[in-house]
Design a protein that fits this description.
The protein has 471 residues and is an alpha+beta fold. It folds into two domains: 25-400, Glycosyltransferase; 406-471, Maltose phosphorylase, domain 3 (Sandwich), CATH 2.60.420.10. Helices cover 41% and strands 12% of the residues. The strands form four sheets. The protein has a four-stranded mixed sheet with strand order 5-6-10-11. Helix 4 crosses helix 6 (188-199). The protein starts with 33 loop residues before the first helix and ends with a strand. The mean pLDDT is 92.
Length: 471
Amino acid sequence: MMVSASGFNTEIDASVTARGLHGEAYRGHIFWDELFILPFYNSHYPEISKSLLMYRYRRLNEARKYAKEHGYRGAMFPWQSGSDGREETQTVHLNPLTGHWGEDNSSLQRHVSLAIAYNIYQYVQSTNDWRFFEEYGAEMYLDICRFWASKAKMNNVTGKYSIDKVMGPDEFHEMYPEAKQGGLKDNAYSNIMVAWMLGKVKELTSKMDCVAEENVLMKLQIPYQELLQWESIAKNLNICISEEGIIEQYDGYFKLKELDWQAYREKYENIYRMDRLLKSEGKSADDYKVAKQADTLMTFFNLEKEEVDGIFNKMGVQLPENYLEKNLDYYLARTSHGSSLSRVVHAQLANILNQDELSWKLYQDALGSDFSDVQGGTTGEGIHTGVMASTLVVALSNYAGVNTHHKVLEISPRLPKHWKKMTFGTLHKGCRFHFQITKNHVEIVSDQNSTLKIKGKEIVLVANKKQIIKT
């Protein structure tokens, strides 16, 4: 990962490919993997994060062109970005189990633009680099908002906005059974993240210099009424939910058939690419409740549960108190982990729900996925940079309990039973911290006078003076 993006080449117009520079898979294209990679760089090498965001900025005009070609406004970044930012996603796909080619609709994963907007927000929150936001980030962020607003269509009967012709992170589901055209409607992950993104516009623009804010709004020709419409869309996006509190992956998902998972495990043993197995039997994953990786649950990898709850409250959505646990159980039982990113996401959610054994097992599997070549032959095509970076991030978030979502850094350690201590450094809002965490205490040194929270208790630090806090 550091070979393809490091502090030595931040001026080079390049980004991190899904397989780095270690293999030929995906032909060196840029996907959404920055979502899993930038949090590590934000906390250790923010100049690299900025360079990766600038890679996207330089391709903003191509994203605008791509949106216009499909009848949308704003900027629609491609699922597989070529060197100049054009869409390079294949339209047909070879199933190696059957030797047959089939239609490929994966370019409909428009959520890559949501990942870019999320990355901009997280970078600025972590670094306080408002100059970057004013000069580059705001233009990208607002044009992505405009794109999603142009995709949202009001249902005059329900008063809710719907978004169609998309695919979620799951990837196995490209269209409805018997449909002749690819795309799904009201993917929960996409709709929630759109609501989050639109809901952050006022917060972000209010922190900009007044002249800079006026300049970007004038450049993009965004009137005040359009901003009000975005707020309305954010509060009224359609989310489908069962009586039990299960968030429907997309409108119509609950109507799909259940799969006999045990029978397929006995028949094939390795069921990671369940989509290919089903096609080899003349079936389609589009007909079944089967996922390649986290989809609905990806929401809670990006956002804290409290923030998602706030989004639901604004939408008027009511859910049972234990809905996240219910959703983890429901979707984990229907996921084949065909992506290396799947386990690390589920590991974090299991940790949030205090399911320590499940979290540790999933984390171990993610950590060794390339080393053990768990997918049976994919490592030779290039290591997976997204899971490499996210295992580092999740180690800090799960076991050190590092939380960078708030104004001050927060630490709530939960070391695995067999870990004696954890030592690491991190950078937050320009202040560099060094931690040593044990079962009983946290040892901290910061390079500036600063404040942080340890298990909810505010701690004031003096620059370069060690403090030991009992936990």
